[in-house]
């Protein structure tokens, strides 16, 4: 499997918390925990640094905290996110991505985004549609290739 490395400079990020009440279905019996909706997606705005042909393009990345067992449950795709080249809601964006973040890492991610991380590295499966993110990571410096290839 061949992949393309996208390096994104983190320009800004936010952790908007949205809390709401689910509409009650007429027939379902649920507890109070099921009535509460909470969305904790981390929103990142950045500029693509690599690959060179996409340098300086704008990208929005949503980090979606999920339980580890949910990330692959009932999914045939073996990826940790998706990269999109068209974004219906925001025509000013060149790219958007959703990355699945294990929810047990959320506190460390928030701390490191606010202190040391300056880049996101996403390895994109060249053969998948939509473009699957097969690895991603964060750093203050340039990434190492997880496949060991130069």
Explain what the structure shows.
With 150 residues, the protein is mainly β. It has one domain. It is built from 3 helices and 9 strands. Strands 1-4-5-7-6-9-8 form a 7-stranded mixed β-barrel. The protein has a two-stranded antiparallel ribbon with strand order 2-3. β4 and β5 form a beta hairpin. It is globular. The two termini are 15 Å apart.
Features:
3 helices; 150 residues; globular; 9 strands; seven-stranded mixed barrel; mainly beta; two-stranded antiparallel ribbon
Query: Hey, roughly how much beta strand do the residues contain?
Result: 35-45%
Strand order across the biggest sheet?
Answer: 1-4-5-7-6-9-8
Number of helices: 3
Number of domains: 1
Shape: globular
Give the SSE order as H and E letters. Answer: EEHEEEHEEHEE
- Helicity, as a percent range: 10-25%
Backbone structural class: mainly beta
User: What Rg do the Cα atoms give?
Assistant: 17 Å
Can you count the beta strands? 9
User: Low-confidence stretches at least 5 residues in length (pLDDT < 50)?
Assistant: none
- Cα(first) to Cα(last) distance is 15 Å
- Mean pLDDT across the residues is 85
Main β-sheet description? 7 strands, mixed, barrel
